[in-house]
């Protein structure tokens, strides 16, 4: 993408010279997510005396590029036009060129002479407003960001009005194809068959354990700080590694040179963001946060569940030279989940989750590229802190330190190199609460907490082979190291495993309206232990290795087409296939039913030695299916989204038999859903009114009939009933001051009060004996997880 500012210094007789507005240092307009091909948009901008853009009008350009560019330039800030020493209001024209050169991040603006005639800038009342002469002008060229092959990008503006998203771009992930929810309303997803603990979460390249708050599912970053969300359901670029599933990466907004802020107050939470420039725009400081109190609302609807959350963010940047910038970014979050068996029972804490990061970064702008050097400190705790009759509570803490070097550079006009180095150390600690009378305490020597050291180097090349063919080959090489205490005092068990992850993606433009997209790659990940009393809500603990020390491995392939339809509608149809080795997703089957099985077999309390599935039950798995995504930009008056996933996910799972043995079978995985549908529709009603609705539907998940607490074959041959819900949104907005606005928003998730049937509450009548049992089982229900929202939001 290139931006050209066309300006003239038209003079009135006897007047001081008019100095046109000076373009900002970063005039980035990302490539529209649903667009295709090259385009040019000509805009006329009104620049106020304080340098802000008060109005942007499209002079030339086609959708979706025109509206995308117009919305982007309204956020720019200029050094204002001046007549002598006096700042004046002016109009200029900006030409925005979108090019399919390749995936690139923002590069510094380069000003080069140009000889274009222009009708701007003009000062109201001057002669130049009517008949400006032709003269030389300046052209500012800036490279923008274009989607990677296999990536779906959600900008904050795109999803702000998505029903059920509550203005948060993270919540919109649920509406994308390939995403299978564990339970409606909870931000744990299977992505193309990969379990939640195999999905990677990143913020500006910083690895984080989770990006969502529980229950309401909002992101752990304030929406005003988020620029976009990049979603890779498989075969992500080489810069992302260490996860054998999907990648969800958040990118924060660039520092702003003007003071601005936003705030919201709702029934379930409140939040605010403020950012101010320092030293005339040389630096900036930002603070933001949110506090959630959904307990009273949720308790009135579902008294058996209690939720609470908060988060914070702070960022400071300082430009030490024209090319060098220093920054510090710190953020953190807290989540609490408690449940009860009945209305008369006390709330028991099932999950407490905290994550904190401090990221120090140095950025240098290079000719045709950029360099970043960063170091990150982290501290996470996750697990259950209270007693539960489902299993002994446990908490895992992780103290981490990571460093990374990222380099991007144009080798030629057709080739761009992206490479980097990463190193990270994770020091884990494990604590277990006191078990209840019917539980067995697991000795601390059973799985001592490890210290993991991971080192990686990666590189890929964005190669524009021809105007219609783009190829991105890449390779990531890693070393996974782990050390933990051995069985003998003073001994240690150390494991070092290398891994090589090749990646390849291609885009072939068949016609002006059709492109063929292809991705394939390998990915490796540490074994992952799930800690938590309820399998679906169990906390993912990536990097907590145990068992035979083998890595989880995923092979991911996808083939698809992208079609530009009339009326700015874009359709993506994709087929995918994923295969895993060493998957540790289903080991909880053995853990959860262990006490009851052992008690029945022995005729008494559980034996003192813990039961462990053979080889800790690493399994193989497959997933394959078809995804469809149809979108019309949310910037249009009538907009919408339709996503559909048809998939099948299988596992080689281990089951305990009534005789106490082990049975292996290839079955549908725990949360395999054959059909998942999301359909959203929004409409601008005029007079600053907007309304929308979203329909969600998915089929049930498999489960096994039980004999007492033991699954009986055929395994996972039963299905829970399908589920649907309806989300709505209604907004009325008013102007606030010169540049701000204030809105009243009514929104609701699951306004149909639909309950979801799950196998988590599977109950069987009768008692288990060594020789016989019952299979009269019924499944329980969750919810209704319904979140109403009534609030006010303001932007200034």
Describe what this molecule looks like in 3D.
With 796 residues, this protein is mainly β. The chain has 3 domains: 140 residues, TolA/TonB C-terminal domain (2-Layer Sandwich), CATH 3.30.2420; 81 residues, no CATH class; 549 residues, Maltoporin, Chain A (Beta Barrel). It is 4% helix and 53% strand. It has a 22-stranded antiparallel barrel. The chain has a 5-stranded mixed β-sheet with strand order 10-15-16-13-14. A 4-stranded antiparallel β-sheet has the order 1-7-3-4, covered by helices on one side. The chain starts with a strand and ends with a strand.
Structure at a glance:
This protein is mainly beta. It has four helices and 47 strands.
Write the layout of secondary structure elements.
Elements: E1 2-6, E2 18-19, E3 39-47, E4 53-60, H1 65-73, E5 81-83, E6 86-88, E7 90-98, E8 110-114, E9 137-141, E10 152-155, H2 156-159, E11 179-181, E12 189-191, E13 200-203, E14 206-208, E15 226-232, E16 247-252, E17 260-265, E18 269-278, E19 283-292, H3 295-301, E20 305-319, E21 324-339, E22 348-366, E23 369-383, E24 394-410, E25 415-432, E26 451-466, E27 469-485, E28 492-509, E29 514-525, E30 528-531, E31 539-542, E32 552-565, E33 569-583, H4 588-602, E34 619-632, E35 638-656, E36 662-668, E37 675-686, E38 689-698, E39 702-703, E40 706-707, E41 710-711, E42 718-719, E43 723-736, E44 740-749, E45 756-764, E46 777-782, E47 787-795
Parallel strand pairs: 13-16
Antiparallel strand pairs: 1-7, 2-5, 3-4, 3-7, 5-6, 8-9, 10-15, 11-12, 13-14, 15-16, 17-18, 17-47, 18-19, 19-20, 20-21, 21-22, 22-23, 23-24, 24-25, 25-26, 26-27, 27-28, 28-29, 29-32, 30-31, 32-33, 33-34, 34-35, 35-36, 35-37, 37-38, 38-43, 39-42, 40-41, 43-44, 44-47, 45-46
């Amino acid at each position: 993408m290139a931006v050209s500012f066309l300006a003239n210094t038209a003079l009135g007789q006897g007047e001081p010279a008019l100095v046109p507005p000076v373009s900002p240092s970063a005039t980035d307009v990302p490539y529209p997510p649903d667009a295709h091909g090259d385009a040019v948009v000509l805009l006329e901008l009104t620049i106020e005396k304080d340098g802000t853009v008060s109005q942007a009008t499209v002079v030339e350009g086609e959708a979706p590029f025109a509206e995308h560019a117009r919305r982007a330039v309204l956020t720019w800030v200029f050094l204002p036009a001046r007549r002598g020493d006096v700042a004046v209001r002016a109009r200029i024209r900006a030409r925005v060129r979108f090019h399919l050169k390749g995936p690139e991040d923002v590069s510094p603006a380069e000003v080069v002479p140009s000889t274009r005639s222009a009708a701007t800038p003009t000062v109201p009342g001057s002669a130049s407003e009517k008949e400006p002469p032709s003269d030389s002008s300046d052209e500012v060229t800036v490279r923008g960001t274009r989607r990677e092959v296999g990536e779906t990008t959600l900008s904050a503006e795109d999803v702000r009005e998505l029903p059920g998203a509550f203005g948060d771009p993270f919540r919109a992930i649920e509406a994308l194809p390939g995403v299978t929810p564990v339970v409606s309303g909870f931000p744990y997803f299977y992505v193309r068959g990969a379990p939640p603990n195999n999905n990677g979460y990143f913020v500006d390249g910083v690895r984080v354990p989770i990006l969502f708050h529980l229950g309401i599912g909002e992101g752990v970053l304030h929406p005003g700080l988020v620029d976009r969300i990049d979603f890779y359901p498989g075969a992500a670029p080489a810069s992302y590694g260490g996860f054998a599933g999907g990648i969800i990466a958040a990118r924060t907004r660039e520092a702003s040179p003007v003071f601005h802020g936003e705030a919201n107050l709702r029934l379930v939470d409140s939040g605010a963001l403020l950012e101010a420039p320092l030293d005339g725009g040389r630096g900036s400081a930002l603070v933001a946060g949110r506090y959630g109190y959904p307990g009273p609302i949720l308790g009135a609807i579902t008294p058996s569940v209690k939720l609470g959350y908060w988060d914070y963010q702070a960022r400071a940047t300082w430009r030490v030279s024209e090319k060098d910038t220093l920054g510090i970014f710190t953020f953190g979050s807290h989540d609490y989940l408690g449940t009860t068996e009945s209305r008369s029972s006390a709330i028991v804490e099932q999950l407490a989750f905290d994550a904190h990061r401090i990221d120090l970064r140095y950025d240098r702008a290079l000719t045709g590229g950029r360099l970043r050097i960063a170091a990150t400190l982290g501290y996470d705790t996750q697990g259950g802190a209270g007693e539960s009759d489902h299993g002994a509570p446990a908490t895992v803490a992780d103290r981490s330190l990571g460093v990374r070097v990222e380099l991007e550079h144009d080798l030629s006009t057709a080739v761009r190199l992206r490479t980097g180095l990463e190193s990270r150390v994770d020091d884990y600690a494990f604590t277990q609460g006191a078990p209840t009378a019917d539980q067995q305490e697991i000795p601390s020597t059973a799985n001592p907490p490890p210290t993991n050291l991971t080192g990686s180097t990666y590189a890929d090349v964005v190669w524009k082979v021809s105007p219609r063919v783009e190829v991105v080959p890449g390779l990531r090489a890693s070393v996974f190291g782990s050390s933990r205490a051995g069985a003998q005092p003073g001994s240690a068990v150390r494991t070092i495993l290398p891994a090589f992850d090749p990646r390849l993606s291609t885009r072939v433009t068949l016609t002006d309206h059709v492109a063929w997209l292809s991705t394939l790659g390998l990915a490796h990940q540490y074994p992952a232990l799930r800690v938590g009393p309820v399998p679906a809500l169990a906390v993912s603990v990536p990097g907590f290795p145990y068992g035979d020390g083998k890595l989880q491995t995923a092979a991911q392939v996808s083939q698809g087409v992208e079609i530009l339809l009339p009326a700015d509608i874009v359709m993506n149809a994709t087929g995918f296939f994923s295969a895993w080795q060493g998957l540790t997703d289903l080991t909880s089957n053995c853990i959860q039913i262990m006490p009851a099985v052992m008690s029945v077999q022995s005729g008494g309390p559980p034996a003192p030695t813990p039961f462990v599935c053979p080889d800790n039950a690493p399994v193989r798995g497959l997933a394959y299916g078809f995804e469809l995504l149809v979108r019309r930009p949310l910037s249009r008056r009538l907009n919408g989204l339709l996503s559909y996933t048809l998939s099948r996910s299988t596992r080689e799972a281990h089951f305990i038999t009534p005789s106490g043995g082990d049975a292996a079978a290839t079955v549908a995985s725990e949360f395999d859903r054959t059909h998942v549908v999301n359909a959203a529709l929004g409409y601008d009603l005029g007079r600053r009114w907007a309304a929308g609705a979203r329909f969600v539907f998915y089929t049930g998940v498999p489960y096994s009939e039980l004999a007492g607490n033991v699954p009986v074959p055929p395994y996972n041959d039963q299905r829970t009933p399908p589920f649907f819900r309806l989300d709505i949104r209604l907004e009325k907005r008013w102007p606030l001051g010169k540049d701000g606005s204030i809105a009243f928003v009514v929104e609701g998730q699951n306004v149909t009060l639909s309950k979801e049937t799950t196998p988590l509450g599977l109950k069987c009548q009768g008692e288990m004996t060594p020789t016989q049992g019952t299979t009269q089982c019924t499944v329980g229900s969750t919810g209704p997880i319904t979140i109403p929202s009534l609030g006010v939001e303001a932007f200034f």
